[in-house]
Design brief:
4 helices; 76% helix
Length: 114
């Protein structure tokens, strides 16, 4: 009985949505694609120079290197000197991975289209 009620409820909720969709979406799709193909010029006050982009990526890379060395040092402290720093090691590993992904995405977005 519950399945029948759920089925009828699903039919009555989706029927107006299906009826509201236009028969041909070809013109709508073309207009949508045209919006994406237009050039998205950034306002001059918001534009970042290539020099500044390189500086930002350099600072991100330096931070990434420091986090990587800290993570490795904590791993060595656990393995060699048997220190109880597993939580800190995992925290820095997560931060390192996050910064590495952000560094890769930012560099890809900024420099791949050129």
């Amino acid at each position: 009985m519950l399945r029948l009620i759920m089925f009828l409820l699903a039919i009555t909720c989706t029927a107006p949505v299906l009826a509201a969709q236009p028969a041909s979406q070809g013109q709508g799709d073309a207009a949508l694609m045209e919006q994406f193909e237009q050039s998205n010029d950034v306002a001059p006050e918001r534009a970042i120079s290539t020099q500044r982009k390189h500086e930002i990526l350099f600072l991100m890379g330096a931070g990434l290197l420091i986090l990587l060395l800290l993570t490795a040092g904590l791993g060595l402290a656990m393995g060699i000197w048997e220190k109880d720093v597993f939580t800190w090691h995992m925290l820095f590993a997560g931060l390192t991975l996050t910064l590495a992904i952000v560094h890769a995405v930012v560099s890809f977005v900024w420099f791949y289209p050129d």
